[in-house]
UniProtKB/TrEMBL annotation:
Coiled coil: none annotated. InterPro entries: Aminotransferase_I/II_large (IPR004839), Class-I_PLP-dep_aminotransf (IPR050859), PyrdxlP-dep_Trfase (IPR015424), PyrdxlP-dep_Trfase_major (IPR015421), PyrdxlP-dep_Trfase_small (IPR015422). Its cofactor is pyridoxal 5'-phosphate. Belongs to the class-I pyridoxal-phosphate-dependent aminotransferase family. This is 2-aminoadipate transaminase. GO terms for biological process: alpha-amino acid metabolic process. It holds the Pfam family Aminotran_1_2. It comes from the Bacteria. Keywords: Aminotransferase, Pyridoxal phosphate, Transferase. It comes from Tissierella praeacuta DSM 18095. GO terms for molecular function: pyridoxal phosphate binding; transaminase activity.
Amino acid sequence: MSLNYAKRMDNIKASEIRELLKLTQQPNIISFAGGMPAPESFPIEELVKIGKDVLENTGTLALQYGPTEGYQPLRDAIAKRMAKVKVDVKAENILVTSGSQQGLDFAAKIFINPGDIIVCESPTYLGAINAFKAYEPKFIEVSTDKDGMDMEELEEVLKNNENVKFIYVIPDFQNPSGKTWSIERRIKLVELANKYNIGIIEDNPYGELRFEGEVLPAVKHFDTEGRVAFLGTFSKILCPGLRLGWVVADKEFLNKFILVKQGADLQSSTISQMEVAKFLEIYNIDQHIQKIIDIYKVRRDVMIKTMEEEFPEGVSFTYPEGGLFTWVVLPEYMNARELALKALEQNVAYVPGGSFFPNGGNENTFRLNYSNMNEEKIVEGIKRLGKVIKESMR
């Protein structure tokens, strides 16, 4: 059978991470590949009680359709939480989405015609690359350092390319690099977006998972003209199975997201929204987030320490102040995809870094996740990986 599929399907490939995760379901694999939260952090008992309460007392409402914008008490609660990143916002500026991944798809749908340009960090989130590619954009990658995107390079890009539609950034504990932008870079980003009339999509799934240092204002905090859309999620601070995220934007901008959501899935799950709203009402989510941080910080520390001990000279890696990932750079002559096959032979998995560069290249890099393996497995996995790297070096 040969069906006549849309041309855009040529741009949509299986996620390398999702394909790797199939391999890592085997119990003997030590996987640093996924971006999955620690399952022991899920508030199962609390959600069982809440689910029972929601269904017994408000079952007909929970199982019914709801407004596209989202359940009002949940939007009110999200608006209050946005104050933590210094964003003063009302519920009317919030759309509940089915995870922040849906917000990425909507952003591309709103902005991109085939051939339009998306500017992003180099490297950037693979899930965003895949979401955007369906709409046939061109990508321009801007290099980064420890403080975030290179603003001089960004201005050159904006100055020399007329059809840039938006700049996509992950300013806090970036996926895959683990880097966090300085306040100065956040301010400059908004200034350049204003100057060149460009939208900004600020993706912030990890911002509340800070192990040390001060909480920084979101890019949205510096938004003076309503051109920043902030994407948040409950996947990393509660649990991903609920599939709930949100978009914060000025009303005119947000209305575009609302329109495309109506066409996509009408609304996000009513029962999930009511359960999360109830959780935020009766439990202290900040205490819950602190439990997650306590788990991840120990695992980050163990991974970094073991890499320092086991990885050979010539291999570098980032030191994230929060989030889920560290980023490893091998000598230029090495290929992390080939190395990944050798690592799998030793029952260790990671994601080769080339996948995080929309225009390819940089095959001497890879991403490691520390959130989903206990400390003992992290030590053993990094030791095996260090041995594989040493054996593959010239």
